[in-house]
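Example record

The entry below shows one chain as it appears in the dataset: sequence first, then C-alpha cells.
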Amino acid sequence: MEDCVKETYDVGHLAPEQTDFGVRISGDSMEPLYHTGDVAWIQKKDSLANGEIGIFYLNGNTYIKELHDEPDGVYLISLNQKYRSIQVLESDAFKIFGKVIGKCKGAEISGFH
C-alpha cells in the first residue's frame, strides 16, 4: 500500500475519530458486511486481536480479512463463505496495516469515484 495512489478527501463526520486512513474495497470476499465501492476506515496498528478485521499485506497483495490466530497457524478469513481461508506461513511476506474501525459508501464522499 505504500506504493499505491493516495488521494485526500474531506470526509467530515463519515470517519470515526481514531481513523488514520481509508481504503476503497474491491471484491465480494467480505460480503455481506463490506461491498465493492465501500470505504473502510483504518486505525494504524501493528497487531490485531484474534477475530478482528484488518487490512493486511501478504506476498504482494493487500487484503481486508478477519484475522484468526489458531494453534495450527495464522489465517486470513473471508466473511463470504465461497472463499477459502488463506494461511499465513512463516516464509510469507506479511504485514498488518491496521484495524478496520468503520466504513461508509464511497458515494457518500464528495468527489470520490
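Notes for this example: The longest strand covers residues 94-105. The CA atoms of residues 59 and 93 lie 5 Å apart.
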